[in-house]
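Example pasted here:
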Amino acid sequence: MRKIFLTTVLVVLLVFKSIADEGMWLPLLLGQQVYNDMVKKGLKLTKEQLYSINKASVKDAIIIFGGGCTGSIVSSEGLIFTNHHCGYDVIANASTLEHNFLRDGFYAKNKGEEIPGGDLSVQFLLRIEDVTKEVMDSLKGLAGTERVQRQNQVLAGINKRMSDPAQFIETRVSALFKGNQFLAFVYQRYNDVRLVGAPPETVGKFGGDTDNWEWPRHTGDYSVFRVYMSPDGKPARYSDKNVPLKPKWFLPVALKPLKDGDYSMIYGYPGSTNRYETSYGILQKIDIDNPTLVKLRDIRLKYMFEQMKKDPAVKLQLASSYSNIANYWKFFDGESKQLIKYDVYGQKKKFEDQFIAWAKGKPEYEVIFPEWEKAYAAWRPYSMLRMYINEGIMGSPLAAFASSLRQVENVLVSTKYSAEDVKKAVESADKMRDEFLKEENKPSDQKILGTVTMMYYHDIPKDQHPVGFYSTLKNQYGDLDNEETYKKFAADVFSKTMIFDDARWKAFVANPDANKLQEDPAFNFANAFFTNYIIKYFPYFQKFNAANAELGRLYMKGIMEMNPAKAKKMYPDATFTMRVSYGSVKSYNPRDAVHYDYVTTSKGILEKYIAGDYEFDLPARQIELLKKRDFGQYIDKQRNDLVIDFITTNDITGGNSGSPVMNAKGELIGLAFDGNYEALSHKIQFDKDLNRTICVDIRYVLWCIDKLGGATNIIKELKLAR
């Protein structure tokens, strides 16, 4: 491989003093100080074993799983461990009422029983190259929107140049440190990934929304997959001739007991953080963005749950969508509360005052905060509208699909498109409709559409409403302050749209007509709101985004210049690129007179278990085994019990779901799947005292696979470290 040149990154003391367990570090940029700290805490691996471009290393066992999770390779035959909620879509799609793998669990007893994952793929990181100079040279003299547009063009060019579709090689340049450094991450994608095993949903989601983001936890959040390659050892699309991948590195699995204070290390792909957010951004979050999102998602979840608990088929149909919506509904609610509780706004403001004093007389930096204040003031009046479009209007699956038909309208009304273009657009829409109808639950969606239309009317300033929409609605359906008005409107939309009428839809596909599309009530509804936003208010958002990016880059650059004498450790925000965090298994005290142990056990599961409950039910077989204390080789001899979950001080965020949690020797001890409620401000600020990562203990995973699932073939495939 080419020798990688890496730009030296200034390491400085930032807004938050970097501490032992804080930091999502790029494995290839681990400075000696950071590595020494890892060794001091207990690490037994060399730097080259952590990350190497010339030799196999831990990084070769870590994968991007699907589009937003992490997984790890745990056998010499390409076996993958990740979270249950990461494999949820595949498990749900493979399930039927007759073979409900989501409800009952699934284990392939041999490779022939493994289930193709459809569009599921995994990506391995091949190498990282620093392209900072190339990007920066192309951006000289540019600022604002012009700089953003040029940067996007340059990054797209690099991505294309460094990718090779024929070899399934993809490159994505990531802007780090707010655009002060650019690294190209080169991946190889494998498209043949198969489901090997999953616990019953009552195990994989035990505790449901009640326990989500909470400790103590007793959730078996795992699933098992396998990645395949062509017979000649290359990535390939699904084929029955493919063979299991022979990985460069795989993780041994530890059966050793955990102690409070044991070293823990997590590799993975954290999605996004904004640890260098400004006080303006904090106010925007707690005043508008988070409360609006929570309010709108609450409505969607309410109506979906009403239908799910009535019918097992509907529960299966909506399970994946409901899970995705619910997860961050609770997160953003908790984030706001923690930001307020710990006065993160005040902490940010205090540092910004110091920066402003330092920047005085420095032309490049003294204008940053006055300009930022103007940018937020210009955007803030329209920011709730954007949230209502994304989480409200488009929160209705029907409205979201109807909005996608704008692409068909575009080719029908424009003279620059050919008949062939029209045909392709309509065929694409027809396929999308098939997928939409499979997942559509009309009773819940109809209530969602009616309710969010009413909420928009009351919550969004009247001058930001689609012109004529609500006056027409009033004339046809009644008083705009009456809930019945919106129920009647929604019922009409659902009963009269051609999207649900096969005969009318087929006629439209056979003879596409712009007038017919524009007359459709579902399209008319979605188009009214979307067009209103795109034409009038999206330009404000673009202008704000460009200013925010430019000012953020300058602010970060200024911080680097401000504190060189106090230089310590600095890490870039998460960007869904490979990171390693280190810390320890550790108990904590969330509030006065309360102590939380670092592990939970089967005793706690039995205490929480409620037969037939939506969130706290368990398979009868599991209750039987736990009451018999049939723990086998997975027993924790220190506790004389089966450990279920444990907590660490590691710094993670969304995207780390499924990440391997390793001990000092690089052996797998668990899978990260959640964070604790007391530290839900972690995307903005890491709390050194309260932050905990919640992990499913690997011994519980193996117990479920072996004792509950009877899949000893999977256990035999692993390298167990005792």
Q: What stands out?
A: Confidence is low (pLDDT under 50) at residues 1-20.
